[in-house]
Amino acid sequence: MPHLSMEYSPALETCVDMGAVCRRLHTAMVDAGIFPLAGIRVRAFRADHCIVADDLPENGFLAMTLSVGAGRSTEALKAAGEDIFAAARDALAGPLSTPHFALSLEIRQIDPELSWKDTPIHARLSGKA
Fold first, then answer.
1. Which DSSP category does 92 fall into?
2. Following DSSP, what letter does each residue of 102-121 receive, concatenated?
3. In what order do the strands lie in the sheet with 101-110?
4. Between 46 and 1, where is the model more confident?
5. pLDDT (tens digit, 9 = 90+) per residue, 82-100?
6. 20 near 91, Cβ under 8 Å?
7. What residues contact residue 60 under an 8 Å CB cut-off, 6+ apart?
8. Which pTM value belongs to this model?
9. Gap between the Cα atoms of 88 and 104, Å rounded
């Protein structure tokens, strides 16, 4: 269950290809080597109504939350987080070169007793379908 959700300011779409950002972060998650391919999800949501910092129209943000299932060490998650954040920084170099952009990543571990799933994708990708 490695799901990367991104929320971003509307103006970001004018200076970056959000589809390309999603693909780049998906690749970083795969390359981390600790997430099962079948569980990886990357999704981005535009925050149509937002106020960033001092409300200048050129202000923008991309806030990422990576939700993962239990069972990975803090060290492994930290290494993966650093790689994913580096990929995001690379993909967003343009906006980050201005004093009007904020980028963040938070990793959350999901308690397995409080998480339900029914995903035949896992069986298909493992050849058990």
1. T
2. EEEEEEEEEPGGG-----HH
3. 41-46, 3-8, 60-69, 101-110
4. 46
5. 999 999 999 999 999 999 9
6. yes
7. 8, 9, 11, 12, 52, 95, 100, 101, 102
8. 0.91
9. 9
